[in-house]
């Protein structure tokens, strides 16, 4: 893949996408009940990992580098959050919840990697024969 020059419009679509993703994350966080294990962040990061892996399945992403930037680093970059996850793991450990912190760490890493691989696998599926005619 060759790099193409970065243009101001690329920065704008990533910024707008990032704002949309951050608002989506805020909506999920706000709607979720407060529990010891931060389920909303776990779900956000696993869903985001899957979506990033599956992104190439979208025709618009394959055809438009700008759409890929808006959806990948933009929307999904704003939606997912490693910083919140890391802070939550640290906070759980600091509060003496070492088992919960370790479990959360392991589940997020394992489920995120699995979701990204599944999304990528689904995005690289061969087209059905009927669709090619």
TrEMBL record:
Cellular location(s): Cell membrane
Transmembrane segments: 7-27, 39-61, 68-86, 98-118
Reactions listed under catalytic activity: fluoride(in) = fluoride(out)
Superkingdom, taxonomy of origin: Bacteria
Record GO biological process: cellular detoxification of fluoride
One GO cellular component, as annotated: plasma membrane
Membrane topology (UniProt): Multi-pass membrane protein
Known regulation of activity: Na(+) is not transported, but it plays an essential structural role and its presence is essential for fluoride channel function.
Keywords: Cell membrane, Ion channel, Ion transport, Membrane, Metal-binding, Sodium, Transmembrane, Transmembrane helix, Transport
The keyword GTP-binding is assigned to this record: no
Pfam families named among the record's database cross-references: CRCB (PF02537)
Cell membrane listed as a keyword: yes
GO MF annotations in UniProt: fluoride channel activity; metal ion binding
UniProt-annotated binding residues for Na(+): 77, 80
Family to which this protein belongs: Belongs to the fluoride channel Fluc/FEX (TC 1.A.43) family.
Function: Fluoride-specific ion channel. Important for reducing fluoride concentration in the cell, thus reducing its toxicity.
UniProt-recorded name of the protein: Fluoride-specific ion channel FluC
Protein species of origin: Nocardioides oleivorans
